[in-house]
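anyone seen this seq b4? input:
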Amino acid sequence: MTWTIAPEPVDSPAAAALWRAYYTEVSDRYYLLHQGRRTDPAELEREIAANTGGELAPPTGRLLIARYGGKPAGSAGVRLLDATTAELTRVFVHEGMRGKGGAALLVGAAEEAARDLGAEQLVLDTRSDLTQARALYARLGYTETGPHNDAAYAEHWFRKVLN
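predicted toks r here
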């Protein structure tokens, strides 16, 4: 089986399912680590409804869906913050699909999408407990920097100059 990565409308069924899986995983990880419980289902639904991903729609954003063997398996999004800076967000690969190279392919495709939007650099934020993500970004040439935003859960910020 092989990976394919393509732009996807932010309101497609595949995008919605991947956003739900992403948010559930990162939210549950946070609450289990800090409060010993999973995300409250009502909170999960409120957050999903409040964060539709609309900022990833053209003309200033792109949502990419990775499919493995034709089935949606991961996502990544980029959105312009200004004329030369884009933000990488929603990088996610289903747990059962990890270790097959999809995350690096997604980030590479997101970098290309950011270039197509006119970005010269890509920034992102992540949390301390998302160790695999931080290792991926470092391996792909991202440099840890000071904060570029004040996102509530951000603990690490990265930047990469796009060539």
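The CA atoms of residues 24 and 134 lie 19 Å apart. The radius of gyration is 15 Å. kinda curious what u guys think
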